[in-house]
Specification:
Pfam families: DsrH. This is Protein TusB. InterPro entries: DsrEFH-like (IPR027396), Sulphur_relay_TusB/DsrH (IPR007215). The chain is of the alpha/beta class. It has one domain (2-86): Hypothetical Protein Ychn, Chain: A. 32% of the residues lie in helices and 25% in strands. Helix 2 links the parallel strand 2 and strand 3 (47-51). It is globular, with a radius of gyration of 12 Å.
Amino acid sequence: MILHIIQSSEGFRRGLALFAEDDTLALLGEAVTLLNHPTTLDCLGRSVYALATELEEFSIAPHSGIKAIDYSVLIDLCEQHSHCLSW
């Protein structure tokens, strides 16, 4: 299981080929704007998290299935996964 920390839409595009079904995505920074296009994430069928502060900054409400988290939960996610990749 890999935690993919996505920081931009470009990072999302670069990592897309490597995302596995049991992987987890954490959206940070500009990457939260991907939630404005829910079909982009709906097709993935994985656990998706987004930093609550950045959702607020970009005025984005989390969609169903998207979990808003803080930095302490992000750290917990890093500890729970065998590998973390930042995109």
